[in-house]
Amino acid sequence: MKPQLVFCALIGICVLFFYGFNAESVSPGGYFSASDKELEVGEELTYIVSYSFIDIGELKFKVLEKINLNGGILYKTIAYINSYSSVPFVDLHQIYESKLSDDYFSEYFKGLVKYKDFTTYTEYNFDYKNAKLRVRKGELKPPVVWTDSVTSAEKEFQDGLSIFYFARMNTGQNKTVVLPCFVNEKKVKTTLNFHKKLTAVTCPAVKYDVACNYLEGETNFVSVYGLTGHFEGWFSNDKAAIPITANMKVIIGNISIKLKHFKRNGWKPPKYN
Question: What does the DSSP assignment read for 96-149?
């Protein structure tokens, strides 16, 4: 068993982000469309990752900045992956950064993996104007470059973190999307099936049933996070579209991810009526 692979799975898919100081009751029939979705700078979402009823670690997602650039918008996001110290034989600490366009495709990606004695990095710079993608990999402190190469970027791609936001911003409708992704320095695809299916969902962060939209999908590759095959998630039915819970298949089995804590100005999860 390799619990580090189990723990890394969430970033590949779950998806998120409302206001109002009272919980909103939603009847099974009132949906928010994709155009109603909103990202909010300062948002923080923390999740518990569990494998076979054992809590093995946490994921934290933040929206850091909204940047106006050349007439467009970039969102700067970051994700932290940390294993619990109580989990034997695992000491996992990773950081992922992504800059997203206003249609939620990747413009830049950086991943850091922290080991006991050194830290490695992977960096993707997407230059769609010139149809180029620069890949850099190596170690930090002292800096060592393993790879510095350029490949083609003939279309817009998702990285392992940007797809998280693309998915959440498109929940609450019936459609299927096949997304081009750049993972492990390979051009691959992920299928997302969005459903207008309101469901009552529970999680540690909320004391009542949350009204959620359903999403499921499939990958035909093994990502850097261990995610492979089928996955499913439930997202709040409101402008925030925050992932409340998710189930995913990784190399060694299945994991569950549940919302533990949230920070978003005035947001209350919509109550299932």
Answer: EEEEE-TTS-EEEEEEEEE-SS-EEEEEEEEEGGGTEEEEEEEEETTTEEEEEE
